[in-house]
Amino acid sequence: MVQQVTQGIKISVKTEFDGTFYKNRKIQYAFAYNVTIENQSKDTVQLTSRHWKIKDALNVTEIVEGEGVIGQKPILHPGEKHMYTSGCLLLSPFGAMKGYYNMVNYATTRRFRVSIPLFKLSAPFSMN
User: Fold this and answer.
1) Residue range 1-13: mean pLDDT, rounded
2) Can you give the pTM of this predicted structure?
3) DSSP track, 30-59
């Protein structure tokens, strides 16, 4: 598990390999990632959007941006957590992801970014 705190918002990420399958005659490697967003600040905040940079071992990079996470824009009061699971597909058995969440502080209406730490995706059979 990787963790990082930015401006009082703690991000924790745990990954798992979900298997392989063929799509368009190419093997795809499926990974899940479980994210916990914890508000350790004294203010109420809301996650408004996300930005991901996904890179595999073949040097293929994909940028994913969008509103909220899994169709939600969670509001977190001080001490609250929001957890979700999502996934990605790679063309190689290992890669990495990193990114950030755009958030807004309800007390000040200030917008800010929360870093999502780099985390690795690896199929167990690809490890030495």
Assistant:
1) 97
2) 0.93
3) EEEEEEEEEE-SSS-EEEEEEEEEEEETT-
